[in-house]
Amino acid sequence: MSIFDALLQSHDKQRGLCAKIMQTKGDTTKRRQLHQQLMLELRAHAQAEERYFYAPLMFHDEGLEITRHVMFEHHQLEDLLREIDALDYSHSKWLVKMRQVTDMVLLHLHEEEEQFFPKAKEILSELQKQSLAHQYWDEYHKIYDAA
Ligand SMILES: [Fe+2]
Ligand SMILES: [Fe+2]
């Protein structure tokens, strides 16, 4: 498995959770569980991806601009996640806010997959593509285990 397979696996998980969460209505156990799962998934993915995908890319001139752009978006997303964390599950604006989260997530994933992954495939060595996948999962699971 390469780092790209690993990242895509996480991205697909996020898309699935986003779709399910948008079907929820009111303060239910299902909404709470899906919200907790999505927050953990987004945060574990962002941290592991920053450390074991984008950080190595930053060492290359062609990867610097991509990385800056992505870090900015991760930061924006984190701000939005904090906003929804602060909202009551039964709040009338909860689903509106979650729609903003899912829109931002889907746009971000699309941008990474369509624009940044092809560039990164040219930048990273074959050895790096393999070893980063292992490091990515180690970091990702470490965050899950600590949750
Ligand atoms: Fe990302
Ligand atoms: Fe990603």
TrEMBL record:
Pfam families in UniProt: Hemerythrin
Signal sequence interval, chain numbering: none
InterPro entries reported in the protein's UniProt record: Hemerythrin-like
Hemerythrin-like domain sequence ranges: 3-120
Protein name, as recorded: Hemerythrin domain-containing protein
Species in which this protein is naturally found: Vitreoscilla stercoraria
